Amino acid sequence: MDGDIETTTAAPYSSQTKNYRLEAPIGKYRLAVQVAFVLVCLWIGIEFHYFVRYLESGGLATWVARPPGAEAFLPISSLMSIYYFALTGEIHPAHPAGFFILIAILVVSLLFGKSFCSWICPVGLLSESLGDWSEKLFGRKMKLARFPDYPLRSIKYLLLAFFVYAIFFLMTAASLKSFLDSDYNLVADVKMYYFFADISSFVLWTLIVLFVLSFFVRNFWCRYLCPYGALLGALSLLRPFKIRRNLSSCIDCAECANVCPSNIKVDKVISVVSDECTTCLSCLDVCPVPQTLELKSSPRGFNVSRKTVAIGVVAVYIVVCAIGLISGNWDNNLTRDEYLYHQKYLQSYGHPTGMAEIDELNEQSNETNTADPGSQGQSENPGR
Ligand code: SF4
Ligand code: SF4
Q1: 277 lines ligand 1 (CB under 6 A)
Q2: Which of 24, 31, 199, 286 is 20 to 30 A removed from 61 (C-alpha atoms)?
Q3: Rounded distance, CA 195 to CA 200, Å?
Q4: CA dist 49 to 17, 72, 169, 323, Å?
């Protein structure tokens, strides 16, 4: 779904518009925000590395606190926490920072569309850079033809459907708690660290293939495979402000469509209604006619400036994360000794990998709940 198709021939550049000034491009500020978030991720990665060194040393190395921001890389656990909160009103203490970070991402998507992908996500910046380098090398935007493009775009929704079905339709509050309390979930961030630090040759080759594919097909991972992007894209359809084209002033130059990294035919639609639009605002930046492409609530509604989007995206993250911090729901409650204990048994921790195992988890948590309502989902591990 790429927009409302409009077939009317546009009128020439209206004299009504030439007295208006073009708004300054936002592209360089978007890049600054992207780079700032990459630096934050690097900082988190370095701190986490030293935290794991401490665990590996058995507590002998210098203590470096675990950065709670690492929980941003646990979206499934965070989604479960949000659902658990919706069912019980409790913020689960295992990864509270992840809970607030995901809430910020969902709020931003509802307000400003899939802006997480083009303003915040480090993978988005990497994909975008690969696409730009490829465009410079080949002199054109590399994209798949319509036939493979459409079916491939559904892959990310199939992956999302699996997670949504497993979490929202199969799991009960008891089994959610059981998973969130599990040893695997408590140290899922450490497991994630090793997934990349001790990377298997299969994962490495998969990443290399995705890297190469993203060079030859712009945004390959984001467009076809990322279930996170699928979730945000679906939510973004509810956003109140859409990119709208003023037919009376548009000169049909197609600059907006040419620059769009999501291949949306902006020059052919009245308003952009697409799950692929990442609110990168590149189309607004290149449009040469003032007041022709705008972010508006309705054709006659009020205009949201590009600066407002930039400030809004960053402000939502800061405010939501500050609420987590101030309310005392940012750091988890695992002690150093508990982490040292889990480090010894890390390799043995696993998670449900299919519907049958989720059913089993439901049955086990229901049995535990029936036998002893006070102990449901509690870890039997002496490390807790
Ligand atoms: S260029 Fe415009 S239509 Fe295309 S993704 Fe960016 S904001 Fe959306
Ligand atoms: S950039 Fe797009 S909206 Fe702006 S004048 Fe050209 S075709 Fe029309």
Answers
A1: yes
A2: 199
A3: 8
A4: 55, 16, 36, 27
CA dist., res. 363 & res. 122, Å (int): 39
Q: Convert the pLDDT of each residue in 63-77 to its tens digit.
A: 999 999 999 999 999
Alpha-carbon distance of 381 to 366, in angstroms, equals 19
Which ligand has the nearest atom to the CA of 261?
1
Ligand 1 centroid from CA 149, angstroms:
18
Q: What is the pLDDT of residue 370?
A: 61
Span 292-309, average pLDDT? 90
How close is the Cα of 214 to the center of ligand 1, in Å?
18
Q: Beginning with the edge strand found earlier in the chain, give each strand of the sheet holding 242-245 in spatial order.
A: 242-245, 293-296, 303-304
Q: Residue 380: which pLDDT band, with cuts at 50, 70 and 90?
A: very low
**Average pLDDT value for residue range 136-164:** 92
**Distance in Å, CA 116 to ligand 2 centroid:** 25
From the centroid of its chain, how far is CA 320? 15
Q: What is the pLDDT of residues 39-95, one digit of tens each?
A: 999 999 999 999 999 999 999 999 999 999 999 999 999 999 999 999 999 999 999
Question: Which numbered ligand comes closest to the C-alpha of 256?
Answer: 2
Helix (H, G, I), strand (E, B) or coil at 320: helix
Nearest to 115 by CA among 5, 264, 278, 237: 278
The chain-wide mean pLDDT, for the chain, equals 89
Measure CA 273 to chain center. Answer: 19
Q: Are 264 and 274 in contact (CB under 8 A)?
A: yes
Structure tokens at 116: 């997480």
Query: Is 271 within 8 Å of 244 (Cβ atoms)?
Result: yes
Q: How many CB atoms lie within 10 A of CB 71?
A: 27
Does this model's pTM top 0.70? My answer is: yes
The rounded Å distance from CA 279 to ligand 2 centre is 16
Q: Whose CA is nearest to atom 4 of ligand 2?
A: 287
- 169: exposed, middle or buried (C-beta count within 10 Å: 0-12, 13-18, 19+)? exposed
Which atom of ligand 1 has the smallest separation from the CA of 276? 5
